[in-house]
């Protein structure tokens, strides 16, 4: 905290007595190091990363970024053809650095098997990225079927709960203890009218799960962060092939500016930001943060 003396010295009329910024930084820190950090340097903490729903789309882009940075990467998916394709691709460039396994994030035994396999191969788990998710059909509560509600909530909210629960247990028992959880939220996490009822509730729940996890586990060296993403060109929109609730979709579209290619968030940008957040020093400060990452669409 700046004392009155320091404020006077820094901003008073005697500018010759300006205090270097280093004076305000604890002795254990180096100001020069803080302002010249190379974020392309090898990971200090994030050595092994587990990403769900990562055989395609955003999840694969995130996995590609971590592999390119030298991390060990484990991914899961429920789509066998995509799993086979990504395994074939990565074997050519990252053989021995990855694990691909079919796993259902809504099934605790399946997730436990995935985490066990990851730790068995790489020795520990440092980062969990909860990416697996599905979209709804924009149905409001009165038109949302129980089947749609259960499916969306199960994958989008129960999934991160199950994976986080199992990951936290691993984070606590490994040596050194600790880890990072990055959850994929949405503009729908905080805007109630940007998707259907099921999707909106599921993503609001992800934001609450992030903050609760951060509050309890942060002091234990386990940090939880969420990215609240905007529009992206990913395979999550596959759900629209079965149709949409057009009245709700049109009402939502009318409530905001039209989407455009320029407003879409590149999945590669999200991937790079996940790599950034996986640095322990960054994750510590970002713990509990739900970060809007949407190219200002919908507008703030």
UniProtKB/TrEMBL annotation:
InterPro entries: NAD(P)-bd_dom_sf, Sc_DH/Rdtase_CS, SDR_fam
Protein name: Uncharacterized protein
GO molecular function terms noted in the UniProt entry: oxidoreductase activity
Pfam families attached to this UniProt entry: adh_short
Database matches in SUPFAM superfamilies: NAD(P)-binding Rossmann-fold domains
PANTHER family, sorted: DEHYDROGENASES, SHORT CHAIN (PTHR24321), ESTRADIOL 17-BETA-DEHYDROGENASE 8-RELATED (PTHR24321:SF8)
Coiled-coil annotated spans: none
Keyword set, alphabetical order: NADP, Oxidoreductase
Keyword NADP: yes
CDD domains, A to Z: SDR_c
Protein family according to the UniProt entry: Belongs to the short-chain dehydrogenases/reductases (SDR) family.
The keyword DNA repair is annotated on this UniProt entry: no
């Amino acid at each position: 905290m700046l004392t009155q003396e320091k404020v006077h010295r820094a901003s008073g009329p005697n500018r010759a007595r300006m205090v270097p910024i280093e004076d305000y930084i604890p002795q254990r820190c180096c100001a020069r190091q803080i302002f010249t950090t190379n974020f392309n340097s090898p990971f200090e903490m994030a050595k092994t990363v587990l990403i769900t729903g990562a055989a395609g789309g955003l999840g694969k882009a995130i996995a590609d970024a971590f592999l390119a940075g030298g991390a060990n990467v484990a991914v899961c998916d429920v789509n066998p053809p995509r799993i086979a394709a990504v395994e074939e691709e990565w074997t050519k460039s990252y053989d021995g650095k990855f694990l691909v396994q079919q796993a259902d994030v809504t099934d605790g035994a399946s997730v436990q098997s995935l985490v066990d396999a990851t730790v068995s191969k790489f020795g520990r788990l440092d980062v969990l990225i909860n990416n697996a998710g599905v979209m709804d059909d924009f149905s409001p509560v009165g038109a949302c079927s129980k089947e749609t509600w259960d499916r969306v909530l199960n994958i989008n909210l129960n999934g991160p709960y199950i994976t986080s629960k199992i990951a936290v247990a691993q984070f606590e028992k490994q040596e050194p203890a600790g880890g990072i959880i990055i959850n994929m939220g949405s503009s729908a996490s905080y805007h109630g009218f940007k998707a259907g009822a099921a999707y909106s509730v599921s993503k609001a729940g992800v934001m609450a799960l992030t903050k609760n996890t951060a509050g309890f586990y942060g002091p234990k060296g386990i940090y939880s962060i969420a990215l609240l993403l905007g529009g992206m060109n990913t395979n999550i929109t596959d759900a629209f092939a079965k149709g949409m609730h057009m009245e709700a979709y049109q009402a939502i579209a009318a409530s905001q500016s039209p989407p455009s290619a320029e407003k879409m968030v590149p999945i590669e940008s999200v991937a790079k930001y996940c790599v950034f957040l996986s640095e322990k020093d960054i994750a510590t400060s970002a713990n509990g943060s739900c970060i809007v990452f949407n190219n200002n669409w919908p507008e703030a």
